Amino acid sequence: MELAILKQTGEETGRKITLSEDIFAIEPNDHAIYLDVKQYLANRRQGTHKSKERAEIAGSTKKIKKQKGTGSARAGSIKSPIFRGGGRVFGPKPRDYSFKLNKKLKQVARKSALTYKAKENGLVILEDLVFDAPKTKDYINLLAKLSLSDKKTLLVVGENNPNVYLSSRNVQKAKVRVFSELNTYELLDADSLVLCEGAVSKLETLLSK
């Protein structure tokens, strides 16, 4: 698969790049994508939810009424879950939601997501960015020239670039990631995937191991 490399002005440079079919044109594995996205979302959960059960409620342990002769059901504690202010039955407790996935499965999931982006024409190859200073206006202008202003974008760079990252930080629906931080959830969540020229070969090397 060949794609034209664009300038920051949105024009073609006259050069093309050949994308590896082993990365961008495989048979997508939907189940691998499901597991990888599930793990990503699970790992983001804090798991700090907590409600008190009857043993943890502060209150009297005195029997609230006599056992028989009241005409209603017997009751032994004001902390019972059937009363207002009582403990909760089987309430949530702090827990860890994370789980393990094999590296090869996660690799297949990312390749599958990249393949879907390529099939949907959601890939843009951009020459390497050079921002002299972090300016949000420059990043907004870049998206406008690429006709991506109204789309959710994910820009992938070949190495850590603080100026590009800081320029994009306040732009809605725009994310910047180093190639090594790329994950399946953000790949699928973006409408358009913008790959810097220098990131393509590094990404292919990373996913071919």
Automatic annotation (TrEMBL):
Keyword Transcription regulation included in the entry's annotation: no
Gene3D superfamilies, A to Z: 3.40.1370.10
Its biological purpose: Forms part of the polypeptide exit tunnel. One of the primary rRNA binding proteins, this protein initially binds near the 5'-end of the 23S rRNA. It is important during the early stages of 50S assembly. It makes multiple contacts with different domains of the 23S rRNA in the assembled 50S subunit and ribosome.
Protein family: Belongs to the universal ribosomal protein uL4 family.
BP GO terms, sorted: translation
Domain of life: Bacteria
One Gene Ontology CC term in the entry: ribonucleoprotein complex
NCBIfam families xrefs: rplD_bact
Ranges for region Disordered: 45-80
Record note on quaternary structure: Part of the 50S ribosomal subunit.
Residue ranges of the TM segments: none
Record keywords: Ribonucleoprotein, Ribosomal protein, RNA-binding, rRNA-binding
Protein name listed in UniProt: Large ribosomal subunit protein uL4
Species of origin: Cyclobacterium marinum (strain ATCC 25205 / DSM 745 / LMG 13164 / NCIMB 1802)
An annotated Gene Ontology molecular function: rRNA binding
Residue ranges that the Swiss-Prot or TrEMBL entry lists as coiled coil: none
